[in-house]
Known about the structure:
Layout: H1 2-19, E1 20-23, H2 32-44, H3 48-62, H4 64-79, H5 86-99, H6 102-116, E2 120-127, H7 131-148, H8 153-162, H9 167-201, E3 208-215, E4 218-225
Amino acid sequence: MLYVLLLILILGALFYLFSRRTILFPARKLTPAQENANLIRVLLDLDDGSREQLFSLYKKQFGDNAARYARQTYGKWKAGTVRPNKQTFRRFLVNLPQVMSFDLKCEVLRELREAYCAHDNYEVTVSTDDWKAKLTPLVEGILKKAMTAELPTSLQHRLTWLAEDDVTVANSILAESEARQTMNALALLEKEFSNIDQLLDNTSGTSKVTHLLRLPLGTVTLQIKKGSGDG
C-alpha cells in the first residue's frame, strides 16, 4: 500500500511539472546607452514650455555661451544630424526632472521597470473549459512578483533623480508606476482572451492549439486542449 501511495505522489508531481513549467531568467541590466536612449527621447519630446524652462535653468547654471551651444545642439539632436554628446546631455539631465510632469516621471519609471525586470517564460497546459481560470492567477502572480521585487541599484538611483531626492515624491512615483504596469498587463490579458477565443473558434477540428501570450514581464506558452464541453 505504501508503494502505491508513493507512486501516486510521484505521478502527481510529474503531472504538475509538465502541466506548468517555468523558465526563470535573472533580472536584466541595461547598458548606459540603452537607458540614456530612453531619457534622450523624453528630452526631445518636451513641450515648448518645458523645453524653454529647461534652457533657462541650463543658462542659469552653466552660463550664456553654454546655453547658446546647448540650444543649437538640441535642434541638431532633434533633426537627427548629430548624436548627443556626453557633456551637454549630462548637463540637461541635471535639471530635467524639474520640468517633467509627475505623469511623465511615472511613465519613465514604468518603462525602466519593465526593461529591468526579469522576463520569465512560463509553459501551461490548459483545456478550453478552464484556460481563463488558470491563466488569470498565473498572470496575477507574475505581476505580484514584479511588484515585490527589489529595484536594481541603478533603477533606485534613477528614481531618486526623478524625485529630486524627495522620499515622499519617490514613493508616490513608484506606487503610480506599479499601478500603471499592472493596468497595462491586465489590458493586454483582456485583449489576449479575445485573441484566444477567436483562435479556438477557427480551429474547431483540432484537438490542441498552442498560443504564445506576450506580456511586459514575460511570456506564457499555452498548450490548449479540447475540454469536455467541446464535443
